[in-house]
Specification:
The chain has 295 residues and is of the alpha+beta class. 55% of the residues lie in helices and 17% in strands. It has three domains: 112 residues, Helix Hairpins; 46 residues, SH3 type barrels (Roll), CATH 2.30.30.60; 83 residues, Alpha-Beta Plaits (2-Layer Sandwich), CATH 3.30.70.100. It has seven helices and eight strands; from the N terminus they run αααααββββββαββα. GO terms for molecular function: mechanosensitive monoatomic ion channel activity. It is a multi-pass membrane protein.
Length: 295
């Protein structure tokens, strides 16, 4: 009985071994070798074409935009559009390269895309925020509402635009913080870099102060200091008006290029106070507060 079982087991092992040997011998190793080599060569060609297309395409895009920058009134806007076009172009190249490689190695890309469509439909409700970001970001770009480097106030967030794309807008605060704002959250933009800005310098005066003398001193300071500030444009306005507490207020409106209004406001406040004191003009102890210097 044991002898018959042993013979049966040996027979099964021999039969399975013969099947494996026959399967191994029937494999067309030459075909597999050449197919693998051809596939590797095709993948290498795809990668070379991808790198060439990326290098040549990016160079052509940047060259085209460089010519636009030389003629554009707003080079920053051209830089913003250039970055978006380059990112879209590179994303399309990556997709095509991946599609080609998957086709070469035999992955059914068509079935994957169809499956992805079904999955995408299932997740469409969850992607509403993403779509809103893209749509709102596209409108912001098309209308030229902001550019990289602009000083803005976006829904209460003050700072400089560090980056902007179709999904998010990055704003760098005056303290160095970076705010990542989803485009769908942007409801109001105050762009302080689209035209000349106004630096308002306020100084309180006693009601019996000789305002004509004060105006003369202010004009003299402006004459001396304005050449040191090439960002100042136009002539300032000097206005004196009464205050509710019985005092008077001197206001000097200095117009500047975008982004320079805060520093000029602070500097000229110091210049005016110092010169008025030197000329014997007495000032109230509590002067007006002004916006602190941007860091």
């Amino acid at each position: 009985m044991n002898g018959n079982s042993s013979e049966t087991l040996e027979g099964n092992i021999q039969e399975q071994t013969n099947i494996l040997i026959e399967y191994w011998n029937n494999i067309d190793w030459q075909h597999i070798f050449f197919s693998t080599v051809i596939g590797i060569i095709q993948i290498i060609i795809v990668l070379i074409l991808y790198l060439l297309a990326k290098k040549i395409g990016n160079r052509l895009i940047k060259g085209s935009f460089n010519r636009q920058k030389n003629r554009a009134e707003n080079p920053v806007r051209v830089n913003t559009v250039e970055r978006i076009i380059v990112n879209i172009y590179n994303a399309v190249l990556v997709f095509l390269a991946m599609f080609s490689v998957l086709e070469i190695i035999g992955v059914p890309v068509g079935s994957l895309i169809a499956g992805a469509g079904v999955i995408g439909l299932a997740f469409s409700l969850g992607a509403q925020d993403f779509v809103s970001d893209i749509v709102n970001g596209f409108m912001i770009m098309m209308e030229g509402q902001i550019d990289i480097g602009d000083q803005v106030v976006i829904d209460g967030t003050w700072g400089t635009v560090a980056d902007t794309n179709l999904k998010t807008t990055q704003v760098k605060g005056f303290d160095g913080s970076i705010y990542y704002i989803p485009n769908r959250k942007i409801e109001m933009i105050c762009n302080r870099s689209k035209g000349n800005m106004r630096a308002d310098v306020h100084i309180r005066l006693f009601p019996d102060t000789d305002t004509e003398k004060v105006r003369s001193i202010i004009r003299q300071v402006n004459k001396e200091k304005f050449p040191d500030y090439p960002t100042i444009v136009g002539e300032p306005n000097i206005i004196v008006h009464p205050m509710e507490n019985g005092q008077a207020s001197l206001r000097v409106d200095i117009f500047t290029k975008p982004g320079h209004e805060w520093n000029i406001q602070w500097d000229f406040f110091e210049y005016y106070i110092s010169r008025l004191s030197q000329e014997g003009i007495k000032l109230p102890a509590n002067t007006l507060d002004i916006t602190p210097r941007a860091k």
